[in-house]
Amino acid sequence: MTAVPAADEDHRALFGQSTAVFAALAGPDHLVETANPAFFTAIGAEGATTGVALAGLTGPEHIDRLDQVFRTGEPQTARDVRVAMGAGPQAREAFFDFTYEPRRAAAGTVLGTHLIGVETTQVRHAQQLMSEHRALLEQIARQAPLTEVLDGMARCIEKLAPHEVLVSVLLADPDGRHLRHGAAPSLPDFYNQAIDGIATGDGVGSCGTAAHRRAPVIVTDIATDPFWTDFLDLAGRAGLAACWSTPILARDGGLLGTFAMYHRTPRVPQDADLALARVFAGTAALAIERHHDEQARRAAEARARSAHDDLAKVLAAERELRAEAEQRAAAAAELAARMRTAAAVQATVPHPDRCQLGGTAGCTAPAEIKIADSWGDAAWGCSAHVEEAIINVRSVFIASAELGGLAAYLSR
Prior knowledge:
This is GAF domain-containing protein. The chain is an alpha+beta fold. The chain has three domains: about 20-120, PAS domain (Beta-Lactamase); about 125-295, 2-Layer Sandwich (Beta-Lactamase), CATH 3.30.450.40; about 345-410, no CATH class. It has eleven helices and 14 strands. The chain has helices spanning about 5-15, 35-40, 60-70, 120-140, 145-160, 190-195, 205-215, 230-240, 270-345, 385-390, 405-410, and strands at about 20-25, 30-35, 75-85, 90-105, 110-120, 165-170, 180-185, 200, 215-220, 240-250, 255-265, 370, 380, 395-400. A six-stranded antiparallel β-sheet has the order 8-7-6-11-10-9. Strands 2-1-5-4-3 form a five-stranded antiparallel β-sheet, with helices on both faces. Helix 1 packs across helix 9 (about 270-345) and helix 5 (about 145-160) runs antiparallel to helix 9. The longest helix is centred in the C-terminal third of the chain and has 76 residues, at about 270-345. The termini are far apart.
């Protein structure tokens, strides 16, 4: 036998089987001759017996239609009739499609009526759930902000749940050691602030424990549960009496956060409650993982842009250095050419044998070029010391009228 996927099992638990009600009614007073137990539950007369008039058990909307069917012999239908089923904590809103048909004798005389109803609550909830779920998936697909998706999801569940529920989503830190506020539109602000940053660990409330165990934690009565010992006052001020928490896990099993359903009174979850939690915990996981992927993509793009900018700066600096080096090479070549020309011109001019620019250590190289400065000082030096002096002393120049030196400047 082929195994049923877990998601299908959850949908089956959520939508369940529709309730069918039936009653055979006699005469114009619509006396109940026979009926199934679901009939008495649906009309708010649980525990009632046959032999009573329907008018004493239900509202006028049924009686008016039954009167018309009995009088005319024509069947009637009513769609999406709202019915309050049960009482007290188990009370719930339900919807039915009703059919009212005549009961006839062999001669065709109308003896009474049949009332048949099929509950459509699950169909309505299924339509609402699928519509809301589709809207959430569309938000995730268009990369809506995570807070917007989670807030919308929480409100959706609170609207769809048959009993009052307060939804909270906490997001795990990257190290998985703490949980941060994600969404909780119906919980008090002071409560959300108090649990923002709560540690994960065994016995740390419902959510901290679920995150630590990577498994659902069902606390049906906060007042008596040891997991809530340190949070009793906080829960009491927030009016919370039960908390069912489901871990939100990534595809690789990593912790993404927790999904919690709070209640005002102590409550034991039904299969439909747990299925609803699993369905939306999976939706939250999809949203959070998509958010993390988008954050990682943007971070990678930012790093790439930064690396590109750094490379552009390096290349610009390299171009500047190359240009400077080329300028220095051109200046050095020009200076070398000038010095060769000066040495050739000054070779016949009387000059000392040795370089005079060697400082205190002296220089034994032959003197080749005469240089001067703007103060009128002059000296002969070897090519190496002359080049060094021209480069390092701004006012020094080759003392040659032919080369445009100081004499040329003075006789301009």
